[in-house]
Every structure is written in C-alpha cells, then in structure tokens.
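Quick bug: Tryptophan--tRNA ligase output formatted oddly.
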Amino acid sequence: MTTQRMLTGDRPTGRLHLGHYVGSLANRVRLQHRYETFLILADLHMLTTANRADDIARVTGNVREQVLDALAAGIDPARATFYLQSAIGEVAELNTLLQSLVTVPRLQRVPSLKEMSRAAGEAEMSYALLGYPVLQAADILCVKAHAVPVGQDNHAHVEVTREIARRFNHLYGDTFPVPELVRSDVTSLIGTDGRAKMSKSLDNAIYLSDSADDVRRKVAGMFTDPNRIRPDVPGRVEGNPVFEYHRAFNDDHAQVAELETRYREGRVGDVEVKQALAAALNRFLDPMRERRSHYEQQPGLVDEIVVTGTERTRQVVRQVVFEARKAMGLAGAYNRLRRSAERHARR
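Here's what came back:
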C-alpha cells in the first residue's frame, strides 16, 4: 500500500505563536508518524499581502525561525520534508493548469480572502489574493497530499482544493487524491488583547520562542472580564481569554476547575489566575525551548534541512505535474507537433 501524504505549512512572515500551535502545528506533530509529511514554507503566498522588497528580504531569516519553531514543537527532521515554495517552479505551472477549474464567483465566496485583504490594509483585492486558494490547491495536489491540517481560516481553502481535485479527475481521469481537511481541537485562539485572534501584525501574540519572562509579562497584561473591578466581585469565565488559555494549555485540570469556581464566586483575583496561567504556559513551552536550543547549537542544520527537502520535493512535484499534463493531453500535443516537424525536416 502506498504511503499517504500530509501537506501543510506557513507563510514566512515571522515567528510562530500559540495560535499557530493550536490551529495546525499540534496536528502536524501528531500526524507526522502516520503520514509522509511535507511542510511548505509558502513565500509565494506571502506575496499576496506582503510583496515589498523589504518583505522579501526577510524571507530567509523568517524561514529559519519557522523551521526552528516547528522542530522545537516536536517535528522530527527525519520524518518531515521542509521546502521553499518559490524554489519549485513546477508549482506555478500546476497553478496555471488548475485555474480554469474554478470560477471567480466561487473564489469571491471564500470568506478569509476579504479578511486578509483588510488586514493588509488593501482597498481592493489583488488578482493574486483572489487566486490564493488555487495556488494552495496546487501546493496540496503537487505532492498528492491526502491530509491537510490547517487552522480555521484555511478550511474554506481546502474545500476549494477538494472541488478542484474532483473536477480535474472528472475531466481528465483519476489523477489526484481528494484531500481530507484535518481540523484542530481549538478552532481559534484569541489574542492577549482580548479583541481579535492572535496575530503577529496585531502584536497580541505569545510566541513559541518567547522567554519565560516574556510570557509572564504578556500574561500579566492580558485582557480579562472588563466588568470585574475587585477580586470579590463574581467574574465571567466564558469568553475570558485568560481562562480560554488555561483550558487550552494548562495540564493541571484540577487547578483550572478550582480557579474557575473561585472566579465565578468572587474568591480569587486576576493576579493569581494570571500567575497560574504564566506558570502553565512556561511548563508547556519549556520542552520547546530545550529542543530549540539543541537545534540552534548545530550551525547550518536548518539551511541543510530546507535545501535537502526542497530538492527532494522538486523531484516529487515534477513527476506529479508530468502526470497532470499527460492526463490533460498537453504533453501529447507538443510531441505530435515536434515529431511532425522532424519528419518534414528530414525530407
């Protein structure tokens, strides 16, 4: 039986944070032992909202940071293939082949695209951003991935990929597996400001690479129940970011239940609840810090991982794109013209 594949990844726009972990990274770590794993460093996708020269100049450093974050989180470099999207030209070719299999109105219904455009401060959506899900489909299908663990923002994108795969197979014969979306247990993680999801651009994130002091400082400033002005006032646990983090990351479930009860009854202050959360987060992050330090002490390792993975992925993608062209009949058209031209040249 052929080994099934998993593909997912991130745009190299900065370090990974707790939102990335609950959205997709935890599933990557869990599933890497079940699937042949491809992790894309999606710098072409980055261009849809960050395409200035200084944005592109930061790609190399951001790629190194993100690979270190993934290794620190528990990705085994012996089991996962990291690759740089822009280094594999055949991905763009497959993107072109797939573009005719989806309509503009269908892409306009993808909810996250408008949100991405607004977050980037764009008055109008670019052609590249509208086509983001098609390029993502090319990423997924170019390695014939069977599983795609992504955060909530990308759920609709994976559904577009599934539609494109089915459409291609219907028109040209079975070529691509229809990939399955792997959902996360925590659909999204609110930022430390309590007003929006965790995001690098909003400066409301706790990063996987943050120091223990950084975590304590950020937790101390977290938003809680705005209507609670004293510790003896009964507080709201539901929708309270501090308790959402406790439930997601605190391994001492009895402590979480006890703090929730006391908070609802007005028998504990925000300071104690936040101190317990900071301690829990640092327990969660400490093993990542140790693994990160281990990999950081091996100069050149991350670069070697990316280069080796990119070269390996290129061979896989070339074969898949050849199969797609053959299924469509594109390879045959040129070959017939070439053979005819050669025959006439010999006369």
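Actually, after a second look the formatting is fine. The first helix runs from residue 18 to 31. Closing.
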